[in-house]
Design goal:
With 321 residues, the chain is of the alpha/beta class. It has one domain: Arginase, Chain A, CATH 3.40.800.10. It has 11 helices and 8 strands. Helix 10 links the parallel strand 7 and strand 8. The radius of gyration is 18 Å and the shape is globular. The mean pLDDT is 95.
Length: 321
């Protein structure tokens, strides 16, 4: 989209005629679609769909992540004026990206939620697009991985997190954000030998074969070495990247349900994400942004930047190919 044409757009979330192009609307006005992409359910010709899952009924402590997708979208309004810093690609100009809106579900019929989310993501994949999901608590990654594994086979997962989410839970009907990775591994959705968790700083007795770069190690060896190790672990298979915002230290992201000190700084996370460019990323999510616990909006801003980095990772391989 040409600069002059872009500046003529009014509420481009509804009126954008070209899914590609930067946006020059006022950051403080207009509909808050993610990165000013157009809201649409028609993914014909689109490379990537951004979707929200405002779900927080699986948390073990503080709720509030149901407000995460809306806050992340609002925070993202500061970003679509320029190509992303630190990348040699401009995904907003060169790729067709849509805001697919939020998953609609009945909050009072919790038992129906997993299948609804799985079908929601499966529909995006069937349309030929990838997905970046704005959460929502971390349970949502389990139904998403079910949809991805059905299409691509067992996924290689890169998980940024303070918690492993590998606590034992063999009742597959339980909906719990602290056991989603356990169930994903046990169900064969994840290839643990080629998966890695970054930023862990809580106790887990059995990692079920998943590789771990805990927070102290990440601080000690630095972002470049972390990224190199991650690339070596995941190899060339299909990758899903899940970023729990509590991977960041509470100083950078206080608005989350179960904050743990000693986490990654925002600059470290950015360097690691940029350093793993070239992985065969099929999709990803950013979860556990809980705006009620952060009056500054800093956590949502971090979430919006993480989502942008995930977009860049997704588009990097496709542009290189």
């Amino acid at each position: 989209m040409a600069l002059e044409d872009a500046r003529k757009e009014v509420d481009a979330a509804f009126t954008r005629s070209d899914p590609r192009g930067l946006s020059y609307e006022n950051a403080f006005g207009g509909a808050t679609s993610f990165l000013r992409r157009r809201y649409t359910k028609d993914l014909t010709g689109h490379d990537l769909a951004i979707t929200g899952v405002p779900f927080d009924l699986a948390v073990t402590h503080r709720p509030g992540t149901r407000f995460g997708p809306r806050a992340i979208r609002e925070a993202s309004s500061l970003q679509p004026y320029d190509p992303p810093f630190g990348w040699d690609i401009d995904p907003l100009s060169d790729f067709a990206i849509a805001d697919y809106g939020d998953l609609a579900f009945d909050y009072a019929r919790l038992m129906d939620f997993p299948a609804a989310l799985r079908a929601h993501i499966a529909g995006i994949l069937k349309a030929g697009a990838g997905s970046i999901t704005l959460g929502g608590d971390h349970y949502i990654t389990l139904p998403i991985l079910q949809a991805y594994a059905e299409r691509f086979g067992p996924m290689r997962v890169i998980q940024f997190d303070a918690h492993s989410d590998l606590w034992p839970d063999d009742d597959m009907a339980r909906i719990d954000h602290g056991t989603m990775m356990y169930k994903a591994v046990k169900s064969g959705l994840v290839d643990p030998a080629h998966s890695v968790q970054i930023g862990i700083r809580t106790v887990t007795e059995d990692y079920l074969g998943v590789n771990v770069i805990d927070a102290p190690e990440a601080h000690r060896i630095g972002p470049d070495a972390v990224a190199e190790k991650v690339r070596r672990i995941v190899g060339e298979g299909p990758v899903y990247v899940s970023f729990d915002i509590d991977a960041l230290d509470p100083a950078f992201a206080p608005g989350t349900g179960t904050p743990v000190w000693g986490g990654l700084a925002s600059w470290q996370a950015a360097e690691i994400l940029r350093g793993i460019a070239g992985i065969d990323m099929k999709g990803g999510d950013v979860v556990e942004v809980s705006p009620p616990y952060d009056t500054t909006g800093a956590t949502a801003i971090a979430g919006a930047h993480v989502a942008m980095e995930l977009i860049c990772l997704y588009c990097w391989t496709r542009q290189a190919g």
